[in-house]
Amino acid sequence: MPNSPIPSLPREALAPELQEAHDRALSARGDATFISVMGHAPELFEWYREFYSRVFYGGRVPVRIKEIVRLRLSTLHGCAFCNRGNRLDAVKAGLDDTQLHFISDETAVCWSPAERAALRLAATMALTAPRGHLDPALYAELRSHFDDAQIVELGMTMAVLTGMAKFLFAYDLVEKEVYCEFGTG
Is the pLDDT at 109 greater than 90, yes or no? Predict the structure, then answer.
């Protein structure tokens, strides 16, 4: 379980929107440490919610593609907290059991060519790929399915997600998978 040096605020001390987020986190992810700590800076939590409403669930790229890359990133990073909720959201976006099983294999036949390209970009953007680079071949593959604005949106979305993963791990705000490379200490 998380063990952040920053104290968690009790649910009752959180603003109403954070209390709702706290309850959703407990229900879907089994822990609300992240929300309880964000209660110290509710304006930053609001910025994060705004990112989700305007970019992740809005924007140019279909939500299904974003759910696929979000689950791929959280799986690569080893965030147990994220994986629990991201799997639920991926199913809501239409992923089936086979796709959930093959989230780490972009060569699996269950993926469309556009999904394969997005999964390859996620592997490039992951914290586990510190030398990841959008090379001309990957760009050409992406460009055959997405326009440049969508490719930029995918990259920015994944940058926020990977940055948040680093924050969650560095501040010990989430439970990690046993294989997570970003443990404490």
Answer: yes
Looking at residue 184, what is its pLDDT? 60
Q: If you write DSSP's letter for every residue of the chain in order, what string do you get?
A: ----SSPPPPGGGS-HHHHHHHHHHHHHHS--HHHHHHTTSHHHHHHHHHHIIIIISSSSS-HHHHHHHHHHHHHHHTBHHHHHHHHHHHHHTT--HHHHHTTT-TTSTTS-HHHHHHHHHHHHHSTT-TT----HHHHHHHHTTS-HHHHHHHHHHHHHHHHHHHHHHHTT-S-B-TT-S----
Does the reported pTM lie above 0.85?
A: yes
CATH superfamily for domain 1-185: AhpD-like (1.20.1290.10)
Q: Does the pLDDT value for residue 185 go beyond 80?
A: no
